[in-house]
Design a protein that fits this description.
By secondary structure, this protein is an alpha/beta fold. The protein is 43% helix and 14% strand. The protein has a five-stranded mixed β-sheet with strand order 13-12-14-16-15. A four-stranded parallel β-sheet has the order 2-1-3-4, sandwiched between helices. β15 and β16 form a beta hairpin. α15 packs across α20 and α18 runs antiparallel to α19.
């Protein structure tokens, strides 16, 4: 299915949990869409596979969760925009579903609550016709909470739950019996609620709403929850979907730098518990061809590999992409135009941060791979912010490369010895050129040198800037802004 244009919205209806009732919601949704003249701007996909688990047993909850989640995931892959979940029992674990999908799920219970408040503002005692499991889960009490409401259930008749029997019984509604004994059982349960002085009766099973019209006149109004839900779904057409912000990370360039970047994301996130942290999708792809080898030699072009990795992040629901690799940013302009989500340019945010922190600064030193230096990406970004770039002398630039790529370099897992000697020699050269701020322009370099204020052995003070730290902070800032 092609991705809908912004003027259209695609709804995915999850069937199978109650085939007849799901079909009833589907029919009423299509009717609501037609009434709102939305037929030309709404696609509705009804997906139904037989659910083999027990519909009312708590032991089948896991099977139900996985069934619903798999259908939602299938809808994600088909570029559906909104999930329609016509199942009360599944709403008992709605929070779990919402936390693990990129798609908004229209809340059936919230629709009922709003309907009661608007159509029956004086209703306080809420009668509910539902299953034992939904009752024990406290679903209705969660939404129709005290002290504003009191939830009331039919009393057992000789130990029998008449509603469950009417729906799940051998000759119940789920087996296609839409008249006769099941209706008699539901009518008895509804009359019992009326005898308990409820103000309104709500179905807690979509099968009850399916036959609500056939129950005849009752002393208390019985809401057609399927119709209410269909109207809410249709009315959501212009709503802005809300979901947890997700940062996509192109990992493996290189692997240790990716782990370092993830630690910086966590460290810079204000959080009091696990759930306060940001959702992050890392696509660890160390097989992306080496960027420096391509820029300064005859190495393979990494453009397609970088683009494919970014597309996987995009398809996975990322809101933005972070690439913790300085040299890879030489390819960002090539691929950004073909992506639907932005790549946060690490070089740009680093230059912005330096200019903000050091408004009088004119020159900035750069320690980076020869590929990054040769591509001119940092030089252009710094110049755009009124800053000149200082580089190590050619012989010392070779030592920078050895510190990164050498046999005993940081990419080989070393952080002491020869690699330290090489990188500090290049650092000394930049200090002698008058650099007071130096960019650690390779994501492995922060593993060799600590970022922040630093005292050189000649007594001078300089600042080492870690672009991955700056990138992590910017990603956290974007995620925090969406939460607010």
């Amino acid at each position: 299915m092609p991705t809908p244009s912004p003027s259209r919205r695609a709804y995915g209806v999850i069937g199978g949990l109650g085939p007849l009732a799901s079909a009833d919601v589907f029919f009423k949704l299509m009717r609501s869409i037609a009434r709102r003249n939305m037929a030309d701007s709404a696609d509705v996909v009804f997906e139904q596979h037989p659910f083999k688990g027990n519909h009312s047993s708590s032991s089948a909850t896991t099977e139900r969760k996985l069934y619903v989640f798999d259908l939602i995931r299938a809808f994600e892959q088909r570029h559906i925009d909104v999930i329609v979940l016509p199942c009360f029992l599944s709403h008992t674990f709605l929070d779990e579903l919402t936390a693990n999908t990129t798609l908004p799920i229209i809340n059936l219970m919230a629709a009922l609550l709003d309907h009661v408040r608007s159509a029956m503002p004086h209703a306080r005692r809420i009668g509910v016709l539902t299953s034992d499991f939904t009752r024990e889960a406290g679903l209705f009490e969660r939404y129709f909470a005290a002290p504003d409401f009191e939830v009331v259930y039919p009393r057992l008749q000789e130990g029998r739950n008449l509603v469950s029997e009417a729906v799940y019984g051998e000759h119940g509604i789920k087996r296609g019996q839409l008249d006769g004994a099941p209706l008699d059982l539901l009518r008895q349960a509804a009359l019992d609620l009326a005898g308990q002085q409820v103000d309104v009766i709500l179905p807690g099973l979509t099968e009850v709403a399916l036959v609500a019209h056939a129950l005849g006149t009752l002393p208390v109004p019985l809401v057609d929850s399927n119709q209410v839900y269909a109207e809410r779904v249709a009315a959501s057409h212009d709503d802005v979907a809300t979901r947890p912000f997700k940062v996509g990370v192109v990992g493996g360039v290189g692997p240790a730098a990716t782990v370092d970047f993830m630690q910086k994301i966590v460290r810079n996130t204000p959080a009091a518990r696990d759930q306060d942290h940001i959702k992050v999708h890392v696509e660890q792809n160390p097989q992306i061809p080496d960027r420096t080898e391509n820029l300064v030699g005859a190495g393979l072009d990494p453009t397609i590999a970088l683009y494919a990795t970014c597309k996987k992040l995009e398809d996975g629901g990322a809101d933005l992409i972070a690439i913790p690799c300085n040299t890879a940013h030489a390819y960002v302009e090539r691929i950004q135009g073909s992506l639907a989500i932005p790549i946060v340019n690490m070089l740009t945010v680093t230059a912005e941060a330096i200019r903000t922190q050091f408004p009088q600064l004119t020159r900035v030193g750069l320690l980076a791979t020869s590929g990054t230096v040769g591509s001119g990406v940092y030089q252009r970004e710094l110049a755009a912010h009124g800053l000149d770039q200082l580089l190590p002398a050619p012989a010392l630039q070779e030592r920078v490369m050895n510190a990164i790529y050498g046999r005993h370099g940081v990419k080989a897992g070393y952080t002491e010895g020869e690699c330290q000697d090489d990188i500090r020699a290049a650092l000394d050269d930049l200090v002698q050129q008058g650099a007071e701020v130096i960019i650690l322009g390779c994501t492995e370099l922060p593993l060799l040198l600590p970022s922040g204020p630093w005292t050189h052995h000649d007594g001078s003070t300089l600042t080492l800037v870690d672009p991955t730290e700056t990138l992590a902070r910017r990603c956290v800032a974007y995620a925090s802004a969406t939460r607010r």
